[in-house]
Amino acid sequence: MSRLVSVGNVIVDIVMRIDAIPEPGGDVIAAGSEITAGGGLNTMVAARRDGMEVVFAGQYGTGPFGDVVRRALTDSGVTVVQPGLPDVDSGYCVALVDATTERTFVTSVGAEGQLTRADLDRIELRDDDTVFVSGYGLAHPGNGAAIADWIDTVPPSVRVLFDPSPLVDSLPPAVLAAVSVRADVVSANSREARLMAPRAADLAEAVTAIAASARGTALVRDGADGCWVVEDGSTPTRVPGFTVTAVDTNGAGDAHDGVLVAALGRGEGLQAAVRRANAAAALAVTRSGPATAPTAAETDALLAGR
């Protein structure tokens, strides 16, 4: 059975809902808040809810935040590869969600930023697995160097999906190049795509340029407008999105990535997998919280009603 194998980060999200970001030196009272595991967990949960087996190969720590991470992984049915670091806690992120549903993040790095090549060598990959790499993981100097060194050893029978994340313009060029050239699929949002292809006149040109820097296949997520897709160097095509009333956009890209990987793992073609991922992301933004990916049945129902 195909599996998602994540080498990303799982951290703790401290989510606060506010009307607007305060001015420098200002203060604001949150209308609501929650403490939950997030980061790379959201993609893994999305894949699990869509019926895929998931393996977490990133690093994590001990302490109060590490306890939240380990509990969330266990409760989600995710297989954990690493033994964890005994003397370092997991990191956390303060996520501010304003009245427009826009998100602002501030992150403190913990054990998840200490992944090594020896850790990665513990992973036992199977044919037809999908290795999921996030730019958030590559942003940590040690993790980025280790993943860039290891990624070339991933067998050709294993798919690599790379989401560059909002940090793409700050990633070391050598690390970004090493992961991109091995990536079978690159999945970026519209902002990330413009950073990766600054000379592109529009998203169709951007997705073409991104695909050319990888193995010929890329997609650019553009919210309710859907996704631009280039497959094996073909002409860019837009896969339509779904119009919904957004409540919280936090985790929409994660839901899209997880369901995309699950659909590809079942053998669906890229455009069909993207359409399913578009539906899952649309459902995710109608709910508050980070890990809001729908179940497979919920996604099926939205697709059937289209």
Summary, kept brief:
By secondary structure, this protein is α/β, with parallel strands linked by helices. Helices cover 34% and strands 21% of the residues.
Overview of the molecule:
It is a single chain. This protein is α/β, with parallel strands linked by helices and 306 residues long. It has eleven helices and 13 strands. The protein has helices at 41-49, 64-75, 117-120, 135-138, 141-150, 173-182, 190-196, 203-213, 252-265, 270-284, 296-304; strands at 3-6, 10-17, 32-39, 53-56, 79-80, 92-97, 103-108, 130-134, 159-163, 185-189, 218-221, 227-230, 237-239. The strands form two sheets. A nine-stranded mixed β-sheet has the order 5-4-1-8-9-10-11-12-13, sandwiched between helices. A hairpin with a 5-residue loop joins β6 and β7. α7 (190-196) packs across α8 and α9 (252-265) packs antiparallel against α10 (270-284). The protein is globular. The model has no long low-confidence stretch (mean pLDDT 95).
